[in-house]
Amino acid sequence: MFEGQRQMPVEATDLDLIRAMASGDTHALDSLYARHGPALLGYLTGQLGNNRQIAEEVLQDVMLAAWKSAPNFRGDSKVRTWLIAIARNQAINIRRKRKLTLTELHESYDSDSTGPLERMVRESRAELLHEALKQLPEQQRETLELVFFHQLSGPEAADVMGVSVGTVKSRLHRAKETLRRLLGDEDMF
Asked: Most buried of the four, 28, 98, 129, 144, by CB within 10 Å?
């Protein structure tokens, strides 16, 4: 092992990894990246116009920001929520600089494959949902994505977006109502 690295136990929590990063342990950063990198990449890909190359670059910036901020992490939120908040801010900055627009959700969110007929029905329904999601205001769409696709709680999504829990609830309610209307499916949510 190199200086500044120590072997982290497999059962190390995210908080253990952040504490180790704050002490200069680069192995902890590698472990945190392995644990959260794929989900962050999926989130960033959707936020950055489905441009995987830019998303991969921004993911590196996210992990560098996490490395630098690790000593200041107070543990007020889950590490995953903190990382998504960093990713969100990085994505907003890149979109402003490069004039990127949001596109449909990353393909990795499709459910497991089934038979050909079920897959065709699921893909057709997913396409309708993607089109309906594009019609939502950006804030409602982002709220739905954080809660349903990234499985953040209401308070966690509020932390990421810097809004109140009540705002998250009202955005979710309005987004669901709009999707029901667009999809003609009263039993969807």
From this structure: 28
Which region among 9-23, 76-90, 106-120 has the lowest average model confidence (pLDDT)? 106-120
Write down the pTM of the prediction.
0.66
Q: Which H or E run contains 43?
A: helix 26-47
DSSP three-state, residue 2: coil
Rg of the chain's alpha carbons, rounded to an integer?
18
- Asked if 176 and 189 touch (Cβ cutoff 8 Å), the reply is yes
Alpha-carbon gap, residue 91 to 148, rounded angstroms: 19
Under DSSP, the state recorded for 163 is S
Instruction: Residue count of the chain, please give it.
Output: 189
CB 158 within 8 A of CB 168: yes
Measured CA to CA, the distance from residue 20 to residue 53 in angstroms comes to 29
